[in-house]
Design brief:
The chain is an all-alpha fold and 626 residues long. The chain folds into 3 domains: 422 residues, no CATH class; 88 residues, Serine Threonine Protein Phosphatase 5, Tetratricopeptide repeat, CATH 1.25.40.10; 84 residues, Tetratricopeptide repeat domain (Serine Threonine Protein Phosphatase 5, Tetratricopeptide repeat, Alpha Horseshoe), CATH 1.25.40.10. The chain has 30 helices and no strands. α26 runs antiparallel to α27. The N and C termini lie far apart (93 Å).
């Protein structure tokens, strides 16, 4: 036993890092997890919202386990077919796509269990953050409230309430676990933990591109917590980030070859680079405000570009950022030992937000997002705990007085998160808040209209779509107006609105083409209906409706062979649809091929034994008179 203790001490002495580990505090960790569950409990009752309609509800690929390996060879926007204009955003996130397949196999489309799993991933992240804080600052007056602040921070309601195939929670968990194992590997000089850190770093990378700044977070840890003089710290820091740099290289190589010899990190923004640069300080101020004052959080925030160096939005915001950084550092340090934790917290905040300052790569109306602060909030929570303790000891001369500040801050965070979780209950509540915060957002108006359309509030939906058109979103707005007219049975008006949408923007959706074809069919224009369905099948070959409706129209025209071809293509995509073999049977019967018609009707009955039309046709063909 004595020899083992000596060996452990000798191993730890070889590490350039202070042995800052503290005893596990399971009761307090359990309390934090319990409070977290209570704060985000309303999210478990939420529906699928926003792009989850495409990524989950309408994503036919979730039903096949074969899609798990396939997800590594396409972008996220190609995982669920939304628009024919795919592959231009550059989101390579195979792990969330794979998790979506697994969740669908386990829970089907029951949103409760999807939210339970998402919350469980968040709780694991909180546990990892607790372990990180416990090692960075062994003072329980720091690591306990820091973990509590992170766990209850309201900006995380977007991460917890918005499942989106678990991309955000997987990203956060991978990032936190990678950092935790890195800290442990450096502190104990254990190579096996370094391997685990590398593995979890890949989890973060293959979940969200924001993990590319992980080496900066590692450098911050190496720099602020390594012991020794300046030269030894520089060498230690550079050596420390080598594994994470290799992790980045590995990820980029996999992405390059998996996507056909291209990284496909595209940006469609037309905003000039100088405007983007001048707007960064203003974006930083907005994010800092969200961290300190997370009130009335929204999916959409108003944002104005800064076009020149002499505008207050640039130099005023820049001054605020530097002044606030200086003040936070000055007032957070109670003693020399806190300097490393404060410096690390500030550097970690910067590393977490850095990927989202590439404003040209983001959607124009989603430049500011709560989830973009997920990693930065780790550093902010540590800084806030240090600030609370410093304020209590400096101003009140009593360390225990920080309890009042901790309870006050945690209570405000927890209550706000509880209330904010209700906003993510459904599309109506989500985009009602978005319109409240950003009434001039065409995205908010468009999605509010779609939410009203789903619950048959057609007049309200039309009002929102018209507002969206007035704000410059003619393509989506006219498509929405077409859906309203279609729902009202005004198919002529629907055709006109859909055609205007197509003329406004070639990035059309499968839903638009399907409804356009059906609307043409309803007004008796079979030629235009067939054109729409053929367009649907050519641009969306993984959706069966285009082939099915084309086949039925060709059957109506008595063009039997082309009809059979289209219907068989539909059947290959949707083998459980009993109508497809029935129509194939009608086509063969029209050609006089009795044997093949019988087989087709029998196939329809095998899928739907109570299918009366198929049974009637089969009885007629099998009767002796025939």
């Amino acid at each position: 036993m004595e020899q083992d203790q000596f060996n452990r001490k000798e191993t730890q002495s070889q590490s350039p890092f202070r042995a800052t580990g503290a005893a596990w505090d399971f009761p307090f960790l359990f309390l934090i997890l319990l409070l977290t569950i209570l704060a985000f409990l309303p999210s478990l009752c939420g529906e699928f919202v926003f792009d989850e309609h495409n990524l989950v509800i309408e994503n036919r690929r979730l039903g096949s386990l074969a899609q798990i390996p396939s997800s590594f060879f396409r972008l996220e926007e190609e995982t669920a077919v939304v628009s024919h204009d795919i592959g231009t955003v550059g989101r390579y996130r195979p792990l969330p796509a794979s998790m979506g397949v697994i969740a669908f196999r386990l829970f089907k489309l029951n949103p409760v269990w999807w939210h339970v799993l998402n919350l469980a991933l968040y709780l694991l992240t909180v546990t990892a953050i607790y372990s990180i804080f416990r090692h960075l600052s062994p003072d329980p007056w720091v690591y306990r409230p820091a973990t509590l602040f992170f766990a209850l921070h309201p900006v995380h309601t977007e991460v917890v309430g918005w499942v989106a195939n678990f991309g955000n929670t997987l990203f956060g968990l991978g990032f936190a676990m990678a950092l935790w194992f890195h800290i442990e590997s450096r502190r104990t000089a254990t190579r096996g933990l370094a391997v685990l850190s590398f593995a979890f770093f890949q989890v973060a990378l293959f979940s969200r591109e924001g993990a590319l700044t992980f080496p900066l977070a590692i450098f911050a840890y190496e720099w602020f917590f390594a012991e020794g003089n300046l030269s030894s710290r520089i060498i230690t820091s550079l050596r420390g980030i080598i594994p994470s740099l290799l992790g980045v290289a590995f990820y980029l190589c996999v992405r390059y070859f998996a996507l056909g010899g291209a990284l496909r990190m595209a940006s469609q923004s037309t905003v000039p680079w100088n405007t983007v640069f001048f707007s960064i300080p203003q974006a930083l101020v907005n994010y800092i405000s969200l961290l300190f004052f997370p009130y009335k959080l929204s999916l959409v925030y108003p944002f104005s570009w800064v076009g020149a160096l002499d505008q207050p939005g640039f130099w005023g915001s820049l001054l605020v950022v530097f002044a606030l950084g200086y003040l936070l550092r000055k007032f957070s340090e109670r003693r020399l030992e806190d300097r490393g934790s404060v410096g690390f917290a500030l550097a970690f905040m910067a590393a977490g937000i850095l990927p989202y300052l590439h404003l040209r790569a983001l959607s124009p109306e989603l430049l500011l997002q709560d989830r973009y602060l997920y990693i930065s909030s780790m550093g902010f929570s540590l800084l806030l705990a240090l600030l609370a303790l410093s304020a209590a000891t400096r101003l009140l001369r009593f360390k225990g007085a920080s309890v009042i500040l901790i309870v006050l801050i945690a209570g405000l965070f927890g209550w706000t998160s509880f209330q904010q979780s209700f906003v993510w209950a459904n599309d109506v509540t989500l985009f009602s808040r978005a319109l409240e915060v950003s009434p001039r957002s065409s995205l908010a108006n468009q999605n509010m209209g779609m939410a009203y359309l789903q619950i048959n509030r057609l007049d309200d939906a039309r009002r929102c779509f018209e507002a969206g058109i007035g704000l410059g979103n003619a393509a989506a707005g006219n498509a929405g107006l077409g859906d309203v007219a279609f729902a009202q049975g005004n198919f002529q008006a629907a055709v006109g609105a859909y055609e205007q949408s197509l003329a406004s923007n070639w990035s059309f959706s499968a839903n638009l083409l399907r409804n356009l074809g059906l609307a043409y069919y309803q007004i008796g224009d079979d030629d235009q209906a067939l054109r729409s369905f053929e367009l649907l099948s050519s641009h969306f070959p993984e959706i069966s409706e285009g082939f099915l409706h084309s086949g039925v129209l060709l059957l109506k025209r008595k063009e039997f062979l082309p009809a059979i071809d289209r219907l068989r293509q539909a059947g290959a995509i949707d083998p459980g649809n009993y109508n497809i073999p029935y129509f194939i049977g009608e086509a063969f019967e029209g050609m006089g091929n009795r044997a093949e018609a019988i087989k087709a009707y029998q196939a329809a009955l095998s899928l739907a034994p109570g299918f009366k039309k198929a049974q009637s046709r089969l009885n007629t063909l099998e009767s002796p008179a025939k």
